[in-house]
Amino acid sequence: MTGWDIKPSGVESVLSLVGLAGEDLSKSVKGYGENVEDAAPQLTRNLGLASNLQAIQKALGLHNGVRQ
Q1: How far apart are alpha carbons 7 and 67 in whole angstroms?
Q2: What sign for the dihedral angle of Cα 19, 21, 23, 25?
Q3: How far apart are the first and last CA of the chain?
Q4: Does residue 51 fall inside a structural domain?
Q5: In a domain, 38, yes or no
Q6: Which domain holds residue 55?
Q7: Residue 63 pLDDT > 80, yes or no?
Q8: Which helix (H) or strand (E) is 66 found in, with range?
Q9: What's the rounded Cα separation, in Å, for the pair 68 and 61?
Q10: pTM above 0.70, yes or no
Q11: Number of structural domains the chain divides into
């Protein structure tokens, strides 16, 4: 075979599938971003609580809940 055997209908079909996959990916990425934004305040609160717990343990001379 000396040339390419590309048919416009085949190219159109592949491009259509790529477009659909792109739309699905876009929706997934958008949903992920929204979930991260929703989780951020809770994560910040949890990190604050963990930081407070570490400070309390340090003040009491504890390391991982065990007196040093």
Answers
A1: 76
A2: negative
A3: 79
A4: yes
A5: yes
A6: 24-67
A7: no
A8: strand 66-67
A9: 6
A10: no
A11: 1
